Amino acid sequence: DIVMTQSPDSLAVSLGERATINCRSSQSVLYSSNNKNYLGWYQQKPGQPPKLLIYWASTRGSGVPDRFTGSGSGTDFTLTISSLQPEDVAVYYCQQYYGTPRTFGQGTKLEIK
Amino acid sequence: EVQLVESGGGLVQPGGSLRLSCAASGFTFSNSWMSWVRQAPGQGLEWVANINQDESDKYYADSVKGRFTVSRDNAKISLYLQMNSLRAEDTAVYYCARGHYALDVWGQGTTVTVSS
Fold it and tell me: CA B81 → CA A100, B49, B63, distances in Å?
């Protein structure tokens, strides 16, 4: 199984500041035949289901604000929130869909400092 | 509006069975891979199973293989998860979601509690 490891486990950032969450996979999730990274990012607010933020490592989902940016390739990925807003308080998960079983990172809890 | 609505959760004794349903609307269900993901209380997300459009491909997490069965009825626009031999560690909110790769539509979830 591909193990997904996120860092940090929790993060406190001031409003308007940048937040950075990292995700590392135990093996590459880059599919060479199409040069796509099989990696997504999700946001989960308390009491709500997850919401897809980023797919193919860097493509924003429908309606996702452009302050959310996904980057990285191979085994190392980053989710960056450029200017933290109050509504961004949530737990963020990365997920690989390169292999089966699909696996998620343990989650990163983002709070306001 | 694209929507997924789960139902069928509840309290069940260890060793018991439960069947979850997920009703889809607002998109062409028969064209979509579908998935089940669960979340134990206070824990992270765990992928459970997925199924392709015509049920010819089904995949399961090792933790549920041989006990859970995913199925669908495209005529009824519904996804199912038959859960047998339930264990305490199966206690979770169960979400259905659209997708084979990234999961772009999620239901609100249904809660399954396995306890005596």
Answer: 18, 9, 14
Which chain B residues are within 8 Å of A43, Cβ to Cβ? none
The string of pLDDT tens digits covering residues A55-99 is 999 999 999 999 999 999 999 999 999 999 999 999 999 999 999
Confidence of residue A10 (pLDDT cuts 50, 70, 90): very high
Separation CA B36–CA A104 (nearest Å): 13
Burial of A40 (0-12, 13-18, 19+ CB in 10 A): buried
Closest chain A CA to residue B99: A97
C-beta atoms of A93 and B44 within 8 A = yes
Q: What are B62's two structure tokens?
A: 């090792």
Pairing relationship of beta strands B34-39 and B45-51 according to DSSP bridges: antiparallel
Chain A residues within 8 Å of chain B (Cβ atoms): 38, 40, 42, 44, 48-52, 55-56, 61-62, 91, 93, 95, 97, 100-107
- pLDDT, tens digit (0-9, with 9 covering 90-100), for B40-71: 999 999 999 999 999 999 999 999 999 999 99
- Chain B partners within 8 Å of A93 (Cβ): 44-45
